[in-house]
Amino acid sequence: MTLWNRARTIAAAATLAVVVGMSPGAAPAQDSTSPSVEPAITKPYKKIELRLKAQGILKEVKVKEGDTVKVGDVLMVLDDNEERLEWEAAKAESDSDVTVRAAQANYEVKQAKADKIKKFNDENNVGGDSLELKEALSDAKVAQLSIEKEQQDLKIKKIKTAKLAAQLENMQLKSRINGKVQSVDAHEGELIDASKPR
């Protein structure tokens, strides 16, 4: 079997079946009130193959053949050190609104300057169309637009952080069913390529 041709398989055990261990000729005497007991073997009622969605080096195999797993249990993990650092940096940027606050402070200063010039012009009968006032109002408008741009940039950073979080999630293989691990055909340190059939 090639390196790329490794399958990860989980088989779910029958949830209502009961295995009773008895030798064929050793049935106990039964009276009319006790239920009958028969030798039985249960088989999986559902078998699924699970694959990692991302490629990379397999860091950890958390299950072995015969383990019981529940929905959501982590079965395998790829090495995600680099991706985790990238996500942490993106999260730090997306959690900080310092650039938005700086733009807001800049706008307030520019608007205060424009208001001061307008007040001076009004008190001294200077025409409202003075070049100095127009420049100050223009600077305030640009500063106001800068706030909107910083808010938009912050929103984009949050979206990128969410995308990186989803990529990190894809570096773990989780069980989609309750059941028993039938076989694990993967080894820690192995290169996993999600684009190749396994």
Question: Can you describe this structure in just a few lines?
Answer:
The chain has 198 residues and is α+β, with helices and mostly antiparallel strands.
Q: What does this molecule look like?
A:
The protein is α+β, with helices and mostly antiparallel strands and 198 residues long. It folds into 2 domains: 3-80 and 171-192, OB fold (Dihydrolipoamide Acetyltransferase, E2P), CATH 2.40.50.100; 87-166. The chain has helices at 81-95, 98-123, 131-169, and strands at residues 8-12, 46-50, 56-61, 68-69, 74-78, 172-174, 179-184, 191-192. The strands form 2 sheets. It has a 4-stranded antiparallel beta sheet, with no helix packed on it. The protein has a 4-stranded antiparallel beta sheet with strand order 6-5-3-8, with no helix packed on it. The longest helix has 39 residues, at 131-169. The termini are close together. The model is unreliable at 1-28 (pLDDT under 50).
Q: Could you say how many structural domains there are in total?
A: 2
CATH topology label of the largest domain: OB fold (Dihydrolipoamide Acetyltransferase, E2P)
State which percent range the strand residues make up.
Answer: 15-25%
Tell me the overall shape.
rod-shaped
- Biggest sheet character: 4 strands, antiparallel
Q: What is the β-strand count?
A: 8
| End-to-end C-alpha gap | 9 Å
- Write the H/E string, N to C: EEEEEHHHEEE
Strand order of the largest sheet: 2-1-7-4
